[in-house]
UniProtKB/TrEMBL annotation, chain A:
The lineage of its organism: Bacteria, Pseudomonadati, Bacteroidota, Flavobacteriia, Flavobacteriales. Keywords: ATP-binding, Nucleotide-binding, Transport. It comes from the Bacteria. This is Phospholipid/cholesterol/gamma-HCH transport system ATP-binding protein. Residues 2-238 form the ABC transporter domain. It comes from Salegentibacter holothuriorum. GO terms for molecular function: ATP binding; ATP hydrolysis activity. It holds the Pfam family ABC_tran.
TrEMBL record, chain B:
Keywords: Membrane, Transmembrane, Transmembrane helix. GO terms for cellular component: ATP-binding cassette (ABC) transporter complex. It comes from Salegentibacter holothuriorum. InterPro entries: Permease_MalE. GO terms for molecular function: phospholipid transporter activity. The chain crosses the membrane at residues 38-63, 83-104, 136-164, 185-205, 225-244. PANTHER family: ABC TRANSPORTER PERMEASE PROTEIN-RELATED, PROTEIN TRIGALACTOSYLDIACYLGLYCEROL 1, CHLOROPLASTIC. This is Phospholipid/cholesterol/gamma-HCH transport system permease protein. The lineage of its organism: Bacteria, Pseudomonadati, Bacteroidota, Flavobacteriia, Flavobacteriales.
Length: 254, 245
């Protein structure tokens, strides 16, 4: 579980996060949604320790991150898996080497054992048989799956995903969403996903934080978000024609 | 103010490079890879340039020595001095700023743009140490490149002067040995070590701290070449003043 309390972050005097309070629950897919520039990525980077907030507290399982010693921060980073928007796979490494990378860096296991674990994880994300391929030789969807495999290979407690299905076709995007949700339940981890894809919200939104202009404008889950009358949320949720038409149909009782 | 900020940032980068070391076994393989990319990969162009520039230096000297009172051995002497003192360490380093420097800037810059550096940081890896330290260690082998450049430069000068019929072989060898000061080699290798450090770190700085996309990676490579050359030239002047004057 990760708790964020009264989080403030500014760049060049301009406040990007204005006092965010939210609890990201364990064994759930926690979604941060909102328009571009609403502060989603900044919030994620603050939680990852890549940005230092001006004010506020981030607690990992009850312990404030600011009170972590250097060694504790190092240990915590081993418990974090991250799926970047573009995959962030190392271009000079094969799929297998990419997934094995965290194991090589942080475990003292034999190469044989590492290889076995990599095979296991690649099978989990349906990529067995692609071990020797380079990232440039596989599709965008496959790159995202390799990125997920790399993020979970060390059995993390927290999984962060920055727009994991951006740039993917709707079918592949759903596959990625479902894979992340399955892994979250299977590994019993706290998953935090940044997205502005309403299909993802519909599919896997178990705990949702809606940000607008650096403020937490709404929170709830996927069943509540389509019922709310909060105009800030409905403006965003029904911004696409498809969802607008579904809403109209619902209102007409169709 | 911007320059001061960049200089400060560069030194902070150096400090960060030597902190929180990466696992030894991983570092070892990274160093071997960098030796292959930066040192072995540069041997071809360095050898080619050294041989022909050495030959041209000898030709130019021979063609301009019309006075019969000036001994022909001066061709070899002039070629040796210019190759050992300036051509091999400085001129080759400027070329390496273009070859190795842009490679370092663009590879680190691309990793920056595609969030690979963020991925390293999130994993708790000191990205500065992981990316830059192996390059610094690999560049410790740079003096070997310069030694080969010196040898091939003189060989090129010998080939052009002797095969071209300007200087007899024994006179050329005599000229090579004339008034040889061993400290000149020490001076050349001291500055080679300094240039090696500059070649590894200045381009790395430009790649690591660049912002933007693919276009900016290209811009960073160009800027990196300019600044690496400037720093090399200034260092060359300072070292020459300190050691030879």
């Amino acid at each position: 579980m990760i708790e964020v309390e009264n989080l403030h972050k500014a760049f060049d005097g301009e406040e990007v996060l204005k006092g965010i309070d939210f609890t990201f629950e364990k064994s759930k897919t926690n979604l941060i949604i909102g328009q571009s520039g609403s502060g989603k990525s900044v919030l994620l980077k603050c939680m990852l320790g890549l940005f230092t907030p001006e004010k506020g507290v981030i607690k990992y399982d009850g312990k404030p991150y600011s009170r972590f010693t250097e060694d504790e921060r190092k240990d915590l980073s081993k418990e974090i898996g991250m799926v970047f928007q573009g995959g962030a796979l190392f271009d000079s490494m094969t799929v297998e080497e990419n997934v094995m990378f965290p194991l090589k860096m942080f475990t003292k296991k034999q190469h044989k054992e590492n290889k076995k674990r990599v095979k296991e994880v690649l099978k989990r994300v349906n990529l067995d048989g692609n071990e020797k391929k380079m990232p440039s030789e596989i599709s965008g969807g496959m790159q995202k799956r390799v990125s997920i495999a790399r993020a979970i290979v060390n059995r993390p407690k927290y999984l962060f995903c920055d727009e994991p299905n951006s740039g993917l076709d709707p079918k592949t995007a759903t596959v990625i969403d479902n894979l992340i949700q399955e892994i979250t339940h299977e590994y019993d981890i706290t998953t935090i996903i940044i997205t502005h894809d309403m299909n993802s919200v519909l599919e896997i939104g178990e705990n949702i934080a809606f940000l607008k202009d650096g403020v937490l404008a709404w929170k709830g889950d996927k069943s509540q978000i389509f019922k709310t009358d909060d105009e800030t949320v409905t403006d965003f949720v029904y911004s696409s024609n498809l969802f607008q038409k579904v809403r109209e149909a619902q209102q007409k009782g169709l | 103010m911007n320059y001061l900020h960049s200089i400060g940032e560069y030194f902070l980068m150096l400090k960060g490079t030597f902190r929180r070391m990466t696992k030894t076994s991983v570092l070892r393989s990274l160093i071997f890879k960098e030796i292959d990319d930066l040192i072995v990969g540069s041997m071809g162009i360095v050898s080619f340039l050294s041989f022909f520039i050495g030959a041209v230096v000898a030709l130019q000297t021979a063609l301009n020595l019309n006075n019969p009172l000036i001994p022909k051995s001066l061709v070899a002497y002039a070629a040796r001095q210019s190759i050992i003192l300036e051509f091999a360490p400085t001129f080759i380093s400027i070329i390496m700023a273009g070859k190795v420097g842009s490679y370092i800037t663009s590879s680190i810059g691309s990793m920056n743009v595609t969030e690979q550096i963020d991925a390293l940081e999130v994993m708790g890896i000191n990205s500065l140490n992981y990316l830059i330290f192996p390059k610094i260690i690999a560049m410790l082998f740079y003096p070997f490149v310069i030694a080969i450049s010196m040898f091939l430069g003189i060989l090129g000068a010998y080939t052009a002067a002797v095969m071209g019929g300007f200087v007899p072989p024994d006179i050329f060898v005599q000229g090579l040995q004339e008034d040889f000061i061993p400290f000149h080699l020490v001076y050349a290798f001291i500055k080679t070590f300094l240039f090696a450090f500059i070649l590894a770190t200045v381009p790395a700085y430009h790649g690591y701290y660049m912002k933007g996309g693919a276009l900016e990676v290209g811009e960073a490579s160009t800027t990196s070449f300019v600044w690496t050359s400037v720093v090399i030239i200034i260092t060359n002047y300072a070292v020459t003043q300190l050691l030879l004057s």
